[in-house]
Specification:
alpha/beta, Rossmann fold, seven-stranded parallel sheet, 6 helices, 10 strands, 21% strand, globular
Length: 224
């Protein structure tokens, strides 16, 4: 399960590659899982311009904060504002996590909705601590082998996340990580022994392709 590491000359170039991959998958159709955070916003905006017709695709979420969909912390709100509202033809379906429910109820509903679903493309980020989706270092959620989604308790706000088994059956996993503050986590995720201290190191497409889209800053500590 090797990773194809692509180092772009700038953050904007890495974001453009991510946008092109999303636009291509939207053209092909299928299930696309998206993530929140500030990093992918420019990629979402560009993907909408590159491919304004997403009617053949269904949009899912790699994780979500347990807040209402109009909350400024909501991943759904981010994706809606930066991508979905900018499309000429929307996705065939938008499968949002119902963050307005209790974490356990939202996770149970999303787990059931994900039954039988394989992501054709999962776009993920990497936090400075090495987390991806809402899979955090050494969290019990990393040991989940049966469920497709589950609730994760966090000090700031509870989350619902796709599990490692759900992410690892994706046909294509794409990590987008830019900026020098990500350099240590990127090195641990792609150039060190995988382990629960760096959840991103545990997410790999089992039968497809895993791609890391980096800029020079985030790739700065990778071995040559």
């Amino acid at each position: 399960m090797d990773v194809e590491v692509r180092v772009a000359g700038s953050a904007a170039e890495a974001e453009k590659e991510a946008a092109e991959l999303m636009a291509r998958q939207a053209e092909l159709g299928g299930h696309i899982a998206l993530s929140g955070g500030s990093t992918p916003r420019p990629a979402y905006e560009l993907a909408a311009r590159l491919r304004p017709d997403w009617s053949r695709a269904e949009v899912w979420f790699a994780d979500e904060r347990c807040v209402p969909p109009d909350d400024e912390r909501s991943n759904y709100r981010l994706v809606r504002e930066s991508l979905l509202d900018r499309l000429d033809r929307p996705p065939a379906a938008e499968h949002r996590v119902r963050g307005e429910l209790s974490p356990e109820d939202a996770a149970e509903a999303y787990d059931a909705e994900l039954q039988g679903v394989v992501f054709d493309l999962a776009l993920l980020g990497i936090g400075p601590d090495g987390h991806t989706a809402s899979l955090f270092p050494n969290d019990p959620a990393l040991d989940e082998l049966r469920r497709r989604a589950l609730a994760v308790d966090r000090p700031d706000v509870a989350r619902v996340t796709a599990t490692i088994p759900q992410l690892n059956v994706s046909r294509t996993v794409v990590f987008l990580a830019v900026g020098g503050e990500k350099a240590d986590a990127v090195t641990r995720a792609f150039a060190a022994e995988p382990g629960p201290a760096t959840p991103a190191s545990l997410v790999r497409s089992e039968s497809g392709t895993t791609i890391a889209l980096l800029d020079r800053a985030s790739a700065g500590r990778l071995p040559n």
